[in-house]
Write a structure and sequence with these properties.
mainly alpha, elongated
Length: 94
């Protein structure tokens, strides 16, 4: 039993090491994306929220942002909700 636990622990440590390495590789991209989202102007968010349906370019960008932010829902409703949340946060901090 002890040998089996040791083998499992070793496998887990190897997997953890792989995951840590992958995270270290993508972390700068995630931080850059978060920073870029913070540079969006209030007026732009208002325009996006007012759209009945987004142009493909805006849809693609917002889908990417939602996925990077960990939101699996990439419907237009979720995108508008996200834009509204960003708009409200900008009003709080500006």
């Amino acid at each position: 039993m002890s040998k089996k636990e040791s083998e499992e622990r070793e496998k887990l440590e190897k997997r953890k090491s792989q995951i840590d390495k992958e995270l270290a590789e993508i972390e700068p991209m995630v931080q850059e994306a978060k920073s870029a989202v913070g540079n969006i102007k209030n007026e732009t968010l208002g325009e996006i929220r007012a759209l009945r349906a987004p142009p493909d370019t805006i849809r693609d960008i917002l889908e990417g942002v939602l996925r990077v932010m960990g939101n699996p829902d990439t419907s237009w409703l979720a995108m508008k909700r996200f834009a509204n949340e960003m708009y409200n946060l900008m009003h709080i901090y500006l």
